[in-house]
Amino acid sequence: MLRIESLSFARGGRAILRGVSLSVAGGEFVALLGPNGAGKSTLLRHAAGVLPAPIGTIFLDGTDRARLSPREAARIVAYVPQGREPDIPYSAREIVAQARYPFLSTWRPAGAEDRMRVERALDRVGIAALADRVFSTLSGGEQQKVLLAAALAQDARLLLVDEPTTFLDPPFQEEIFRVLSDVCRRENLALLVATHEVNRALLAADRIVALRDGEVVREGAPGEIASAEALEAIYGVRFLLARHPNTDRLLIVPRAEGSA
Amino acid sequence: MRGGKNPAAFLALFALVFVAVLLAAPFTGRETIRPGEIFGPEGTTRFFIFWTLRVPRLLVGLLAGASLSLAGLAFQTLFRNPLATPFTLGVSSGAAFGASLAVMLGLRGAFLGIDGTALAALAGALLVVFFLYGLSRRGGGMSTLHLLLAGVAVSYFFSALLLFMQYQADFTETYRVVRWLMGRLESIGYAGSLTILPAFVVGTIVLFFYRRELDLLATGDEIAQSRGVPVDAVRVRLFLAASFLTATSVAACGPIGFVGLVVPHILRMLLGLSHGPLVMGSVLVGGPFLVVCDAIARNVVPESELPVGIVTALLGGPFFLWLVVRRRG
User: For the whole model, what pTM was predicted?
Assistant: First the structure.
């Protein structure tokens, strides 16, 4: 659904992405890991088309993104920005309804079908009760859910999600990842999620791609990434790993004070 | 909070008010005219007052009021700033300077059926809009404060140029320009309406056509782009439309302030933030608003006619302050 071939991008003389290639298939949950400044957001924003065309090629559903109109691209790919949006003056329902844009025109106004999809998206992420609240009055976690619901209402087959849990408390984080995994499996969506939540990525993702300094440094199944050596290559720090009591997967744990 | 709004009911009400103003305005004033008198005989004073003075004045008021409201609505959304209007951004000053320059230099004639003065005003308006837009894009956005300060600076700059021009010109010409700069609707005949009409028609169609894009631009550029809006191309078209609306109004009536501020804000309170109803509301309310202000201007001082720009400024100034104070709170 998404294939990126040797994507490079520089801003202000500094290379942010250097020849990154990756792909995400339908129904696949790919987590994008990497330290701050590794180029995760830039990569997502290029795939979403909100940054000017870089060097390299981005294929959406087999078609070069550069050959698609913004509207055509928006029917394939939806983007959930980081929850640090400036104050949006609209209500949650209005924001989600706006996401039907790529399907509407002067000759095809919003109809019952569109309204049904809006309500379904609101339900899906559990914010139907907040639908009439103005975005700027919602908490960080609720705002994140509104943006996710809007992306779902866009009916795209590829979802690009930028750090969905940055400002959220643990239950909200859990819930966002549950919704993401759920839509990925049940609706066969291709999912590329940039995150700092290493453990959630190790548990939820089918595959992990790790960026460092604008390059892919590791790529593989969670089992391959969950090693002290691989994580050190990504973050430059030695992590302590322990097994999850239910799944037996290796996860990172914080070091206890004073231990080696 | 906005869930209970019913834009359709309000728009129906606005349409009624529009029709009422349209029917009442030309009959009322110092000289009350009865409906029977408007069909002739030609040559009577009242026939003349009705068809040569009042109807043109009503039309130019409806067109200028609607155009300035639409321009204000568009600027507020495009700059994502509730205090952006043709007047506060200095777009009106730029247009006024262009128009005055054309008048002073004696540039007459028309191009593609558009009045030469209006074209000069358009050039001035576009210069200011794209200058401010360029500034606001630098360094990824511009705060309300900076945008308004830039607008004030632009206004001062063009006011100084206007003063310089007036200083150079002869007395009668200067008096005419000063009266025009106060913003007035008194026009004899239909020339003013014909200046605004093309911009009004095109501007209304463009804004209504791009109503969904305006909603998304008000939400945010990146989100708009990711939903499939070609943001840069749409924004340039909307800036052109808003500048065209401002420039022709200024060319016909002078820089009338605060209509583009007051009307869109009142409409947002009543209709919500969806641009479809807001564009329709701007047309239905903006015109009658200016016509009513003009009626006040004509009648508030006996035996004299205030320029309508003074009335809109007296109403709009405090409203603007209220918005500023409320935003801080």
Answer: 0.90
